TrEMBL record:
Keyword entries, A-Z: Repeat, RNA-binding, Translation regulation
GO biological process: regulation of translation
Pumilio repeats: 140-175
Claim: Lyase is one of the keywords in the record: no
Taxonomic placement: Eukaryota, Viridiplantae, Streptophyta, Embryophyta, Tracheophyta
Protein name from the UniProt record: Pumilio homolog 12-like
Amino acid sequence: MTDEHEHVVFGKLIEESNDRRLHSFIVKASLNSKLFINAGFCKHGANSIQRLIKKVKKTSEAFMVTRILSTGFYELMTHHIARHVIQQCLNLIGNQPNEILYELAIYYFQELATHEVGCISLNECINSISGSQRTTLLDHIANVAAYLSNDPYGNYVVQHVLALRNASVTDKILHCLEGQFIHLAWIKGGSHIVEMHRIF
């Protein structure tokens, strides 16, 4: 999966595997989850896992894959290469298999929002999450909007949520930021939030 040349062989193996062989492979991956997840931190390994996700996207094995990835969720979401593995799940796999990833995004939202790479990953998660989990995540972000707006990375998450134009969430954010707009106008990132406030 991680070798510069041999990852191509892995890709062909996945493409030609029947359901039984694919299930067997994922079971073995779950027994060696640390090795499997570690593969995602290099370019070829991440590409290999993404090919596997594409193969299982409409099967019951999708639940197994997201369960395995959930054990290294924060590390994957905050790595510039590995984050694409989670993004592939969010883009291709349905809401039910991804629920475990969404729950972890809610749990780690503040740590992700204030991380250089994590803030990008969290914004991508915001784009795909739905239902009650979406409401919970947006409410959590709105409740700490003042803190995030003053953070060099967190402010990007606040900007992203404001751009969704969700009236109730926007109201919560603006209420949270009440009395801080002059201060925010003087800091990088914060000034963009002030500009967005003027639009609303």
